[in-house]
Structures are given as C-alpha cells and as structure tokens.
Amino acid sequence: QKVSEILKTDQLYRVEKQDVEKLSSLLTECFQQDPLYLQLIPQADKRKKLLPELFSCDLDELFENCEIYADSPDLNGIIIVSDETEPYNPLKYYAVELYYALKSGMYLIRDDHSLRTFWNFIRGKDYLNSVWTNNLHTDRRMHIVYFAVRPAMRGRGVATKLMHAVQQYADQRKLMVSLETHNEKNVRMYEHYGFRLFEVVQKHFALKQYCMVRA
C-alpha cells in the first residue's frame, strides 16, 4: 500500500506539482545556512542564486519517486518520504537519476565557470545520495529525504505533526525509518522522536553526516 493512501488525512496536506514554487522557496529558506550547503557552495552570493534552481530540479525528481506532505496548503513545514518497500523499475529509476544529475550539473557549471562548485558536488556525492542506507540491509524501510519547518513557525508543533504521521504509518507496518542530517544540533531532536545514531559519514570534507534510524 502506498504512502499516499495512509498519510492523506485531514491532518496533512499532500503537496502537488502546482506547489513547486512554494516548496522550493521553503527549502531554500530552511537550508541556506545548512552545513551541507555551506560546505558545497561556500560563497553566499552563489548559494543564494543556486539553491532555488537546484531545489527546483531536485523536486522534479522527488515528485517522480517520493511522497511530499506539508502541514497545510501554506507549507509552513514539509516532510518528503521514500517508501523503500515499493517495487520500482531500476532502468527508469537510474534514467531519471541521470537526467536530473546532468540538469543540476549544468546549473553548477553555468554559475561558476571555475568548476569549483561543480567539483564540490562531485566530491560530496556521498553526502547527497543516502548511499549509507545500503548498510541497513533491509527494504522494510522508509527514508525521510527532507524534513523542514519554516524558521518563523518552529516551536508551534508543525514538526511533530509531520513526523508523527510518518511514524504512525511506519509503526503500523513495522517499517524502519531512516534519515540523515548534517547539523549536529539536530541529532538530539531526532533522538527525541525515537531515532538512534547508526553511523557518522565523513568523506573528503570536514563535514559530518549523521545517519539515523528508528526501528
């Protein structure tokens, strides 16, 4: 049974493609100071210009492979999940991955002819592709790709509302839930939601990726 059939309740708003501008804006606002993007795009002016384009490109792919939910049509907070129990066509999946990787690469090269930003993304690919989840050795799992709440709306129960809906779905089906964060301050928050630290990934940069699971 697909995630959408469970999470589509009066408590959550299912985000559709007509919401993509609001969604891209929310992600940009929430992640412009995230340690991952500070590492990959250290120049503030380039980051301000690139992030909306990269997120818009990323969202095209996510609408293909994931389910996207918000607290309300205002999109004060969102949670994007991939149900790893769902069967998929490997050829289609990797074709879509390749297409959007090339599209993102064109943005990076166009806005930084020195190729430094592009090279940062190449070196940082393991921070971006959740490859660590292969070590979990289970497809009885959901992965939280993005979880974000508008800064002005934090502390108002938005995050809990979104997270509890996903956890309820996972608990009903005895699914593991996985996610990663690049902000050490978030680790305690996720522990509050029942996650535990699985491993810490660090490759090519001083940046650390905190990989967490909820059994």
Structural summary, described in words:
The protein has 215 residues and is of the alpha+beta class. It is 47% helix and 19% strand. It contains nine helices and seven strands; from the N terminus they run H-E-H-H-H-E-E-H-H-H-E-H-E-H-E-E. Strands 1-2-3-4-5-7-6 form a seven-stranded mixed sheet, with helices on both faces. A hairpin with a 6-residue loop joins strand 2 and strand 3 (77-83). Helix 4 packs antiparallel against helix 5 (90-111). The longest helix is centred in the first third of the chain and has 22 residues, at 44-65. The radius of gyration is 17 Å and the shape is globular. The mean pLDDT is 87.
Provide a compact summary of the structure.
The chain is α+β, with helices and mostly antiparallel strands and 215 residues long. Helix content is 47%, strand content 19%.
Topology:
Blueprint: H1 3-7, E1 13-14, H2 20-31, H3 35-40, H4 44-65, E2 67-70, E3 77-83, H5 90-111, H6 116-123, H7 125-128, E4 141-149, H8 158-172, E5 176-181, H9 185-192, E6 196-201, E7 209-214
Helix pairs in contact: 2-4, 4-5
Keywords for this structure?
215 residues, 47% helix, alpha+beta
Nearest-integer average pLDDT = 87
The sequence of SSEs as H and E is: HEHHHEEHHHEHEHEE
Helix content: 40-55%
Beta-strand residue fraction: 15-25%
N-C termini distance: 20 Å
